[in-house]
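Q: My collaborator sent me two sequences in one message, no labels, and asked for predicted structures for both. Can we handle them in order? The first one she listed is below.
A: Yes, handling them in the order given. First sequence, followed by its structure tokens:
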Amino acid sequence: MVTCIYARRVHTTLLHVSLYPWAVSITGALLIGVIPVLAGAISMLLADRGCSTAFFDVLSGGDPVMYQHLFWVFGHPEVYVIILPVFGIVSHAVHRIAFFSLFNMIGMIYAMVAIAVVGYFVWAHHMFTVGLDVDTRAYFSSATLLIALPTSIKVFS
């Protein structure tokens, strides 16, 4: 009985928190996913340059497109790392300044989570000219269009 009351209290207080802490939390989770990829790409590049490995060197059997994948797996979600806290600040300011509130807090939280999740999986829409196969291009095109849904929910709310 006590844990149920405590869980209900935590649930209601998290929904009453401003959108900015939610945005920062989602950004932190996104960073936890992308920073190791950047560290791996940098380590592999440094190994290519200093230790004579062949991860990305075409002449030695490496794949430069793999470096592009590793770069954009970090680089594209980094856009959302920058914009999600701004979304949280602007949403908080509009909510506090407006005379009435039209947006749903849970919908805004879900929209930010969806922006982060889908934004993590659309990196290769920067790579359509490197020779990706048709199915891969179709997936990344669809995912790129899909990210417009939570973003429009966020912007128009």
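Q: And the one she listed second?
A: Here it is, processed independently of the first:
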Amino acid sequence: MQPESCDIALIGLAVMGQNLVLNMNDHGYRVAVFNRTVSKVDDFVAHEAAGTQVAGAHSILEMVQALKRPRRVMLMVKAGPTVDEMIAQVAPHLEKGDILIDGGNSHYPDTNRRSRDLAAQGILFIGTGVSGGEEGARHGPSIMPGGNPAAWPHVKPIFQAIAAKVEDGTPCCDWVGEDGAGHYVKMVHNGIEYGDMQLICEAYQLLREGLGLNAEELHQVFAEWNKGELDSYLIEITAEIFTKMDEDGTPLIEKILDTAGQKGTGKWTAISALDTGTPVTLIGEAVFGRCLSAMKEERVAASGILAGPRTSPEKNRAPFIEDVRRALYCSKMISYAQGYMLLREAAKEEKWNLNFGGIALMWRGGCIIRSRFLGKIKEAYDKNPQLINLLLDNFFSHTLIGYQESWRRAIIRAIEYGVPTPAFSTALSFYDGYRAARLPANLLQAQRDFFGAHTYERVDQPRGRFFHTNWTGRGGRTSSGTYNA
């Protein structure tokens, strides 16, 4: 391998890493590759990368020496300590102005730390979300880079070349913000992905149990939905899933155990929502839905003890299916609105200047949540970059108002059939809470003041003035201090 002959290096030759390398090669970039299990390098170069410009390195030093300056090294390794270990091995071989990129699903506080620590050494760090799975990595992912802004001009041509493109050719990749902003946006993307998947699963169960639809009929419903407002990658693959048959000729979906796994990004989103005091209820329910699914043995035992309603399948199918479709669409709107609420709060706390319309554009193609719907989010922020909440945009508000009767009917039918719809239900509860000029928190504050002298504000006094009542006549005049946990 000739010195300074490669444009970029990539460490970590699992499926995502391999496909990103081949994608870069397709766009004319020469990539040096390294893997901790060095035999994997030779295997990749001899097979998947045969006939390409990809250069295999058998040590980190050999890999670094093959790079043009400023050196660009991308890590595609497991999030967590492995990233720190790899940085510790690579950094001593780099010079000031060289660039390290973490393309894994790292937690954004780790990216904040790494960005600042490496900046002190003169090394420019990027933490970038990469979405789209193996197909996206190979043919065009959504890429969400953040970190040290000085690094962006040096990686922009590569990232935007390999990224997915929307209809007008705009790449689904742009600079997100400093430090952990890129990984934070990817985290919220994954949280929304959790929500989308849970909503689709609830629609599936309601159609299956409420109407008794079989796999072929479910395929037809989802394929039809994918032609309209719900047009998206997840609806598309859901329709396809129902067509897959097992070896015995029966639908494979019926053979798959109903316990869902998770890698933590949805949980991180829910924790961040709690930390910032943002009511991202739908993603939280999606995470808990997976947790409940994992309690398989306990659920099976409970099913023999706890009875549900006895109902017959609905015979009038078309209105039922349309109600479920509209409920899914409305609930999806709530999920994205909540995700954007969280992005807004995090941007305030971290002092990130996030381009909300640009984020929607980055998600329009290449990623798991790509959908026609995201274009409406971009339009909303293009019209009003200071939009407080997506639900206040005309398109979103008019759709929710117009569809809410169907949304409510679908949830009522779910209750009647005993079908759990936690994401549908929490979405509607949030809608009703957000549009309520008055909530019952006045009683909650009275309770807090009664038992703990926590004080309250009054509707007939200016905000910021606090009062305490001696509710029983036995309490004192001293009130508790106020603070927000």
